Amino acid sequence: MKQISGNKLLVKALKEEGVDVLFGYPGACTIDISDELYKQSDIDIILPRHEQALVHEADAYARTTGKVGVCLVTSGPGATNLVTGLATANYDSVPLVCFTGQVARHLIGNDAFQEVDIVGITRSITKYGVTVRNREDLGRIIKEAFYIARTGRPGPVLIDLPKDVMAELGSAEYPKSVNIRGYKPNTSVHIGQLKRALKMLQKAKKPLFLAGGGVIISRAQEIFTQVVEKTQIPVVTTVMGRGAISTKNPLFIGNLGMHGAYAANMAVNECDLLFSIGTRFNDRITGKLHEFAPHAQIVHIDIDTASISRNIHVDIPIVADAKEAITKMAEYVQECNTGKWLKQIREWKEEHPLTMKDRGMMGPLDIIGEINRQFDKAILVTDVGQHQMLVSQYADITENRQLIMSGGLGTMGYGLPGAIGAKIGNPDTPVISVSGDGGMQMNIQELATAVLEELPIICCIFNNEYLGMVRQWQKLFYGKRYAMTNLKAGALSRRTEGQEYPEYTPDFIRLAESYGAKGIRVTEKDQIAAAFEEAKKNTKTPTIIEFIIDPEEMVYPMIKPGGTLADLIMDC
Length: 572
Fold this sequence. Notes:
Largest sheet: 6 strands, parallel
Mean pLDDT: 95
Helix content: 25-40%
Strand order of the largest sheet: 3-2-4-5-7-6
Low-confidence stretches: none
Oligomer: single chain
């Protein structure tokens, strides 16, 4: 029977799993795998400039295509550089399979050069991790990894590959099926529980749907919209669930939580039935747990058993894939008597509309509004900070638009590599990233990747010269003591006790041009539309548009940490 090396079997396995893009960075322990990949042409190999960016790129590729993202890095520092991206993907339920090189088996545990226990390091932030100890197990482990990553609640899987195992000859067979003892993801819906929940829905006077990221992950937006319109029940979403129903749909109220709309938070506070799908009720949407939805019975549909009643006690738990459950719901739901309830919600919206004060100068709302006008179809990728919350509040997310971000972990530096991964997976769709000046600098080296891959992404930088979200907390709750948030601070400001600061570093426009990208700086409202029009002309080159933003711009509404959904700080 024909025998091949582990390196050859890995490449064969990737092809069998339908992998067409691999994000990789080479090293001594993976050089033989790189050599095998060089000999084939079915899989495109993307060479980023940093492993952390690499895993974010694979993450965004997976989120926007529905495929499994695949990474390959070397041992030691190459592997540890994946940690933040693995945690990001784990929080947001993104299917990844990450291969890490490892020293030969006889060196493991001996403090060999570039040896770390990466499986041990990442055990709490991966869905599954394993070191391949025997060549005969390699095919089975790879097959199981892809299955685990994409089934149940999706997540990242890490496979550690000792160099000697990969060099060893063994069977060329790759398994056709998977049978993992103890891992049997639920693929059905408990009809009895679902019917109980729908009876409660029919009887409720103030019912409310809460849609989380699970609705997006399961690609259930279309069927969910049908259920919403059939029942005439209003919808609030988490930030990760934005887009579960078009934000232009009259039954959509807004996001709830720390920066949620007034009407959305009031609806949760006053509803008598909260029907939640695909959310884990984290602290950013609940506020004080014992005062969350105080008048409501709660139904919770989630694919992850561990997420149900972990933070919020629920009355009817339903363990199921969001799309499977919603599809079943569509067979049974009827129109509910919500006229009076919808009238109350409209009054809240009119009383406190979601808007920003016009301060006369260019602001974030002007920029996001122009994106809404100019891009009917687009993928929006945010970094983390004020700009992220503003995009989640004001960007129109419709059937033709997708919004992705690091939601659970809140990883600065996600925006640019996320846009790269999204564009590689969706070459015919405009991709726009929005970053702050702080987050942009955390992975700015990926401009080289974007240039060399000829990706015409549009990178918007909201430059307010500060780490804006932390500065906002300092302004509101720390007596305007702006400690460690001024990005112009340094030797000069210390020497002059804060009286003098140098010019902003870097000059983003010159930096973009040094990479071979296009750079545009915008300082006035009337320049915004032209900047986007100019960026759209670049069909093989990324464009950075730097928007000069007032540091005093704030994100409202806001709930003070430890407050309740009713304790909103409005624009002041």
